[in-house]
Amino acid sequence: TVISFFFSSFVVKINPRNHSAVDTNKVMLAEFGSLSLEFRYLSKHTHDTSYEKLIDQIYDHIIALNHTEGLAINHILIRTYSKGLNSHLDRLTSQPRGMNFGFGALGDSYYEYLLKAWLQGGKQEKRLKDQYDASIDGMMKLLFGTSKKDGYMFVESDEEQIGEEYATLDMFVSGMLGLGAHHETNDKRRIRDLTTARGLMFV
What is the pLDDT of residue 94? Predict the structure, then answer.
């Protein structure tokens, strides 16, 4: 079975040995997230369902991969077979690569857009909400912390740097949690996420 992913770049000069235009054999979780809403909107406005079907296939595949407390590995290893610019990805070999996971630059858009895609679909796609909920639970368990000096809340970029930094690209988490809390029907989850969102804003 063949499934397509998004690559962030390609080489201008084709490799003469394998004719591959793809610059890497892995894709980042955030790369897919960054384009998922746009492709779904493209299907809506062009009445061509192929764009949305592609996004659905990738969601299905990523959700089916092994997760750690709801968090997906930041890189997915891809084996490509290509000729010229026509690259395809073998679904059977697209597996997590490495062990890092987190809400930083490599994974941020994926988690943010799980929530937004659920809202975009009129809150009808339960699998997206379930995966979002699982990822937030995992974040709270593995990546969330409070500084000892002043009590500020923070979310780490990945699990290997707990207590070391609160990176710029982690700071979207506050807005994401606030948006999720606004649409949450579970009182316990809503209060937790809204409280955390405010804390991350240092309010």
Answer: 44
User: CA torsion sign, 52 to 54 to 59 to 64?
Assistant: positive
pLDDT-based confidence at 15, cuts 50/70/90? low
The letter for the amino acid at 58 is I
Most confident of 27-41, 42-56, 134-148: 42-56
Q: Which residues contact 97 (CB under 8 A, 6 or more apart)?
A: 26, 73, 75, 76, 77
Token pair listed for 126: 């339960």
Structure tokens at 172: 């979207």
Phi, psi of 100 (to 5 degrees): -80, 140
Rounded Cα distance, 101 and 173, in Å: 15
Is this model's pTM higher than 0.90 or not?
no
Burial class of 62 by CB neighbour count within 10 A (0 to 12, 13 to 18, 19+) = buried
Average pLDDT score over residue span 191-203:
86
Residues in Cβ contact with 58 at an 8 Å cutoff, skipping those fewer than 6 apart: 3, 4, 5, 32, 36
Residues 6+ apart with CB under 8 A from 179: 115, 116, 119
